[in-house]
Write a structure and sequence with these properties.
This protein has four helices and no strands. With 106 residues, the protein is mainly α. It has one domain.
Amino acid sequence: MKTLFAALIAATLAGPGLPALAQEQPAINKQEAKDMNTQSKAEYEARKDLADANHELNKADCEITEEGGAERACKKEAKAVRKAQKAEAKQIHESDKQAIKALSDK
């Protein structure tokens, strides 16, 4: 249940993001691009922190509900989920950076 909830939160945070802006807005100045990059980096760090927090929750849940080999497997799955969430956060951040660059190059 917690994993599903965490996935929903991550999907909500991911949202359409900044790439949609690249299609709708004219070129931006250097300061606006810098501000957008700062915002994108902050969102990236928040997504990574959320993945770490979810990992700790999932790990604690494993310690409480599972024993022995099942506990180790549960913790391994929690670690894999964290890794996937961090990879998704990085991918979103990279696409935001590309969209910002495209906006500022016009």
